[in-house]
Amino acid sequence: MSRSELADAVNATLDRIYSGRDVTAQYVNFRWVGKLERGEHRWPSEARRAALRQVLGAATDADLDLYSPRRSDGTSVEDGVAAEPRPGSWDETIHLLREQWHLLVQNDKMFGPEYALMGVTRQLATIEDLPNEVPQALRPAVIRLAAQYAESAAWLHQSLNDHAAGHRRTQQALAWAGQIADPTMTAWATYRSSQQWLTSGHPAQAVEQAEAALRHDRKLPGPMRAALRVQHAHALAATGEHRAAMRLLDDAHRWAADRHPGKPEGEHGSYCTSGYIEVHRGACLRLAQRPQEAIGVIDEALPAIPRRHRQDFASALLNKAVAHAAANQPDQAAATAHHALPIARRAGSRRILHQLAHLGAAVSGHQQLPEVRAFLDDLKGAT
Where is this region: Disordered (predicted)? Predict the structure, then answer.
């Protein structure tokens, strides 16, 4: 079942168990199920536990890996009652590490991947020692955090153009996600692996990994489902499967992040908006040898990309510049790339700077054009 389907089943079961009573206050939604999966809820209310046991065919709460955290006064804490974990508890440690992850995602946007990677690496070193120290019931939550941090490190290494380190961290994330059979982290780390294969020029392996990630599709939140389809489409387009790629991009719009309001910034796939999807449509059109269409699509998509998502915005401009080059428009390619250059610098993305350098080499035979000359002059200082 997907999270939404599980939530619906729990609500229907609540109505059956407590027929004649108003239990709407106990109803759950897909976000609540997500928090349950991530270990943020470990002791739902008695009514919700009863419904979960029935839906999932469990005899006891322990069969669901649910346990009762205790306050210092010995009373149980049910979900929604205690807003904060008890100071000094393992609950608090896990909560703080999870909050720190969100902060580090924002650090990447504000200060760049090199700065964020220092924090992620330090926190990961701390988390790696925790699984053997925490109570058994908390071990899955800690291992999931380790997978989450490792996958973030993989992305940051990718941004810094360090592909070998990115691959290592991705494999680490996959191993941890596999230990606890976590579909969300397994799918996301596999998605990252597909990106890495595509970037390193192995589209067939990228397709393979994208398809493996999509096996978990129905268990994932909407924005992640959109991101997985975008990656699958891009990989297929790189292998010449252009029609299939376009169909996937059309489908991705059903799950775009801007169609799912309330998704926290920094959650997996929260960047996969309609604008992001259309930029990738432009990239796929260019791979299909349709550069003029690609330029038009990316032009329309650019205003929809938040400027604080500097890497995404610089990458969109890069894709447009490459399409101009493919359309034999070196002056416009250089002008667009020149626009991307300071944004990529501020974002700290060595990956995009490296790709801009490749584009510079491609247009360097047209230095009689002022736009090309200005771009190449500025490029020397950036790379």
Answer: 66-85
Q: List strand residue ranges (DSSP E) for 47-186, in order.
A: none
Q: Using alpha carbons only, how large is the chain's radius of gyration in Å?
A: 23
Pairwise CA distance, residues 276 & 21, whole Å: 46
Beta strands in the chain (DSSP E): none
CB burial of 108-143 (b: ≥16 within 10 Å; e: otherwise) equals bbeebbeebbebbeebbeebeebbeebeebbbbbbb
Helix (H) or strand (E) holding 336: helix 330-347
The per-residue pLDDT for 73 is 38
Q: List pLDDT tens digits, range 64-82.
A: 777 665 433 344 444 444 4
Q: Check residue 260 and give its pLDDT.
A: 60
Distance CA 340, CA 379 (A): 11
Cα separation, 287 vs 281, in Å, equals 10
Average pLDDT across the chain, whole number: 88
What residues pair up with 76 in beta bridges, in sequence order? 70
Distance in angstroms between the alpha carbons of the first and the last residue of the chain = 49
Q: Which of 99, 67, 375 is nearest to 383 (CA)?
A: 375
Indicate the pTM of the whole model: 0.76
